[in-house]
Amino acid sequence: MLKVLKLKEQKGFTLIELLAVIVILGILAAIAVPAIGNIIEKSKTDAQITEAIQIIDAAKLAYAEDNTTKTFSATSTDNDVTAATNDLEDYISKLKDKSWTVTLGANNVWTITNHEVDTAGITEDELSALARN
């Protein structure tokens, strides 16, 4: 004789199934949140490096027009745009950092100081190396 199994109609999920899904979502969130934080921090650093490279490129343009000036700077009090002075305002605009100094040194090496990337001074080659990483 054949036994016929009758299955109950199932409606919804069991408590154990719901708990398993919540645990899996918690594990995924614990992994994803720090990773996203690292991505955001890296993008901010990359933006600062790119801005420093753009400032140096603007200084090169200014130097090409007038090779008597080897130092260009921007100063600001508490990043107040109205009080800022920028030697390169004809070559670059909309900078986030309002205070920096770019200098042409020996062997035609451009160095930027007092910028968000490195306040002590960093060369164009060092910035390019950081941008590649």
Descriptors for this entry?
45% helix; 14% strand; alpha+beta; five-stranded antiparallel beta sheet; 5 strands; 133 residues; 2 helices; rod-shaped
Count of runs of 4 or more consecutive helical residues: 2
Q: Specify the structural class.
A: alpha+beta
| Assembly annotation | single chain
The termini sit apart by: 73 Å
Gross morphology:
rod-shaped
* Extended strand count: 5
Mean pLDDT comes to 84
Query: What Rg is obtained from the alpha carbons, in whole angstroms?
Result: 28 Å
SSE series: HEEEEEH
Describe the structure.
The model has no long low-confidence stretch (mean pLDDT 84). This protein has 133 residues and is α+β, with helices and mostly antiparallel strands. It is rod-shaped. The chain contains 2 helices and 5 strands. Strand 3 and strand 4 form a beta hairpin. It has a 5-stranded antiparallel sheet.
Layout of secondary structure:
Elements: H1 15-65, E1 71-75, E2 85-86, E3 100-104, E4 110-113, E5 122-123, H2 124-132
Antiparallel strand pairs: 1-2, 1-3, 3-4, 4-5
Helix pairs in contact: 1-2
